[in-house]
Amino acid sequence: MGFHRKPASTTGKGRGSLRTLPLFVILLAGGVEAAEDAGLNLNLPAQALSATLDSLAKTSRVKLVYADAAVKGLNAPPLQGHYTVQQALDKVLGQNGLRYEIVDKTLIAVKTPALGSTSLPKVTVNAKAGYDASDPYNTEYVVPNAYAATKTDTPIMETPMSIQAVSRAVMDDQQAITLNDALKNISGVQVSEAFYDGAIIRGFDTGGSTYRNGLRQAAISGLETANLRSIEVLKGPASILYGRIQPGGMINLAPKRALDIPYFSVQQQFGSYDLYRTTVDATGPLLADKSLLGRMNIAYKSNNSFRDFVSQENVFIAPSLSWRPTDNFEANLDVEYQHFTFTDDEGALVAVGTRPANIPISRYLQDGKETNKRHPNTQDKTLTAFDWTYHFNDDWRLTNRFQYTSTAYRQTSIWFGELDETTGVLTRGMWNTPLRRNTYASNLDLAGKFNTGDFAHHDVLVGFDFYRLDEHDGPGGPANFYGTPESMINIYHPVYSGRDLTQFNPGTENFAYKHYENWYGVYFQDQITLWDKLHILGGGRQDWASESSGESGTGSFRDITLNANSNQAFNPRVGVLYQPWEWLSLYGNYVESYGSLNGGRSFGGKPFNPETGQQGEVGIKAESPDKRVTATLAFYQIYKQNILATDAAHPLYSVAVGEARSRGIELDLSGKLTEDWSVIGTYAYTDAVITKGSNQGNDLLGVPKNSGSLWTRYEFSSGDLKGLSFGTGVFAKSQRQGDNDNSFQLPGYARWDASVGYSFVQSGAKITTQFNVYNILDKTHYDRSSWRLAVYPAQPLSFLGSIRVEY
């Protein structure tokens, strides 16, 4: 039906007259209940409230009548997802101080307070809309759609892969300010890297690499989360769409986008060990017609550490622009700059016997404490990303993305060489060299929809991508200096020289290294839906990859001879998902992965064979009727060939350990059990072993057989305690092997966290105060290790408070 407007004096039938209402909107339908039962699939942008109400009327086939003055100058947030009429009204009217009342079966009245009223009448909210990635006030734990699995906005319930996501609400409630803080909420994911932000997924290390908006970026440290709306983890091989990737899975960072409604937030955090962090988030239209939007995220953090002599400072600036000149075209430009100053702590602690050494976890086993002040290590990262999408029509679109990342490191540190476990004397070497790493990534995707017959619907994707890595290590400083008395320390009775590491005599050994990678790929994918219940995913990828590297001991790039290697491969992917009811999905998949070329360095300088992997997986997905709670149960088995590990005899190099197998069970659950009660929980059983090679039969390092987490938060939405919230959670891991030789173990642990917060509105601004406590029982435990002389303790009892103002 259409719609028309009536003057404000129009009267209504049913429960009295509407004549006394100063402002109102009437929805006159063939039946409100019928519209509620059917529900609406909406994709409305943030826009004028009148435009949203008109679109809602057309979509729901209701007749809309309202006074112009009622909505003049008011804006509505975006509506994207499945809503009932009441859910849609809750969202668009509540933000503007309006309410509605169901007058009878055919009439809804939307009201404002009477003239002279000082407060809004009580509104009973029957339901809330689901996750809205563009809503900065969204409190949902569930992310129903994720980009990483298919490069399309396919609901997770229709995707025959295991994919989990950490929403912005979870990060805020836990005050997760690092990538590792957030990833503890996903099953089968463990912290891995000491220096770079990385993870072990389903038993296999990602190598520190992450993806941003679907494009690979080089490994970095101190990754900032202030400008992220969610973090997605795709379990299992993803090389069909992304090229070289580890078979355990991938991490995709989803950045915030500019909004066409004004929003501003400033937050100040303060915590243990002199931690101070300030973040600013500002967004809104830059032109009156809202064709150009802007956003700016800024973060500054400084802190000491429970580790002696260790400190950090991080400056992060991330402006972005979104341009939408027409309904068919959109372009986004993102820039990120990060200046990270840090004390090197890459060696951390050591193992003695079969356990971490019995020394304080605060003990620092490097040296040159004065250098930490005069010559801090630095990482400078600049990222420029541009993407555009052109919609030919409602079914076909073309998307292009480009990303350039430049990272420069200056690192002075001592690395560990050998430990005499009887005397506690640790010999050490010195590393002091600049490193520059540049990456270029781009892709071009054509996606479309069409039907074959009356029962088969196709979502197809064809694409091309490119990735290049340029890495230069040295010259400009001494490296690999090793063996003088000043490079020894006793782990039980440390004596620090206090010398400036940059003044050590480099001797005769200097170091220079070059490394290049280029890979290209073409891929295709077809998501076929049959009878609205059966979803079949098929696709494949052809890869071409080349790698060259070389090093010299003279400190000159001119003396480097590059050793080149190249390869190509085709890999398929197939998945099937059956959805007998809207709330339940049964799925299975088989995927092969191509690890391109092993980029590690062997002591002899010979290149490694490409990594390959295969996965089989079956699982069950379920969601509550209101789509606010989701759960995934997965069973999988993965094989990986040509896996690399640290060369124990030469720690700066790698060795191939042959083949490894990981299999297990994973359970993830997240959502809102009630309007006030949120929960996110995980469990993983992971059996990851080396099946071929010198360590055959050993467990892979860093992988607990059992791990899990449970975080829950309750916020009072009404009554005298409105705005008060409490949260608590437990994060646990069983024993893990500290190296692939299984020569020592990291003990299991259970960590208990909690939070308390209070939110209120003052002068139109939402003010939130929050206090989080981590490791309440102050249990000593260890995050990770890479070998016997690199064991990393986790933080003891600590606190983090914050105050945030939003409007």
Sum this structure up briefly:
With 807 residues, this protein is mostly beta strands.
Essential attributes:
five-stranded mixed beta sheet, Maltoporin, Chain A, Phage tail protein beta-alpha-beta fold, 22-stranded antiparallel barrel, Ferric Hydroxamate Uptake Protein, Chain A, domain 1, 807 residues, 8 helices, 3 domains, mainly beta
Please specify the SSE layout and strand pairing:
Elements: E1 24-28, H1 32-38, E2 40-44, E3 47-48, H2 49-60, E4 63-66, H3 68-71, E5 75-76, E6 79-83, H4 85-94, E7 99-104, E8 107-111, E9 163-167, H5 168-174, H6 179-183, E10 189-191, E11 199-201, E12 204-205, E13 210-212, E14 215-217, E15 228-235, H7 239-242, E16 249-255, E17 263-271, E18 275-285, E19 292-304, E20 311-326, E21 329-342, E22 351-352, E23 355-356, H8 371-374, E24 377-391, E25 397-420, E26 425-452, E27 456-473, E28 479-482, E29 488-490, E30 512-530, E31 534-552, E32 563-581, E33 584-594, E34 612-623, E35 629-647, E36 650-672, E37 677-692, E38 706-715, E39 724-733, E40 736-737, E41 745-746, E42 749-762, E43 765-774, E44 782-787, E45 790-793, E46 798-806
Parallel strand pairs: 13-16
Antiparallel strand pairs: 1-4, 1-8, 2-6, 3-5, 7-8, 9-15, 10-11, 11-12, 13-14, 15-16, 17-18, 17-46, 18-19, 19-20, 20-21, 21-24, 22-23, 24-25, 25-26, 26-27, 26-28, 26-29, 27-30, 30-31, 31-32, 32-33, 33-34, 34-35, 35-36, 36-37, 37-38, 38-39, 39-42, 40-41, 42-43, 43-46, 44-45
